Amino acid sequence: ACTGEGCQYNFKPVYTSLPCEMTEIPEAGAKVIDGATGELVKCLRRGVDDDLTEVLFKGSMVPIAAQCCLKGTSTGDAAYCKRFIGSDDNDGCIGGKNPLKRLTYSANAAECARRSTESAPLALCEDACTGEGCQYNFKPVYTSLPCEMTEIPEAGAKVIDGATGELVKCLRRGVDDDLTEVLFKGSMVPIAAQCCLKGTSTGDAAYCKRFIGSDDNDGCIGGKNPLKRLTYSANAAECARRSSESAPLAL
Fold this sequence. Notes:
Elements: E1 30-34, E2 40-44, E3 54-57, E4 60-63, E5 68-70, E6 81-82, H1 105-115, E7 122-123, E8 140-142, E9 157-160, E10 167-171, E11 181-184, E12 187-190, E13 195-197, E14 208-209, H2 232-242, E15 249-250
Antiparallel strand pairs: 1-2, 1-8, 3-4, 5-6, 5-7, 9-10, 11-12, 13-14, 13-15
């Protein structure tokens, strides 16, 4: 950095020739998830989302919180999650606190490396780390979890009226992958996510699963009041998340 060598550059960012040791988004993508529930918020794609620092979350664009986890441990271990090192404040929190730092996926990985020690090596997490501090329960968080993405089919996918079944929009791969709302009856409206039971067919009483358990915000696949803003891929992922061995779900 050449600290203290004049020109008031101590108060500026400076160029170097140091290599970045960048951690790219994996080829399989990486999940950004809800810091409280672990639900999928967005799938990061290499070559598309490399510079992304914020996502649509509960109706607003929100910075993605950076957190780290202890290598050599696993989800569920008390020592696994490290939302902060030392103190639960702006300095200690991996991704800041108030305000959040605006870090990319690669920058989150770099911050974990920077905060690592020989006895406590850190890396990106495979868990939401709910309740582990820094107010990240109210934020989307980075993970190293692969996306298991369900792409929009090559033939496209219909968004239809939830009452009449009439066509509202045809989703196109490579164009509408991040779409969460459409023009519907004169207004831009979030597209509701729903699932159906594999091994059954339209007309079967057990086919449709707009909710699991209870017809409320928690039970409804796509939320209720308000609706969750889910992409096509996120709808598919939510069906997979809510599946069980006896009741596998899909779009």
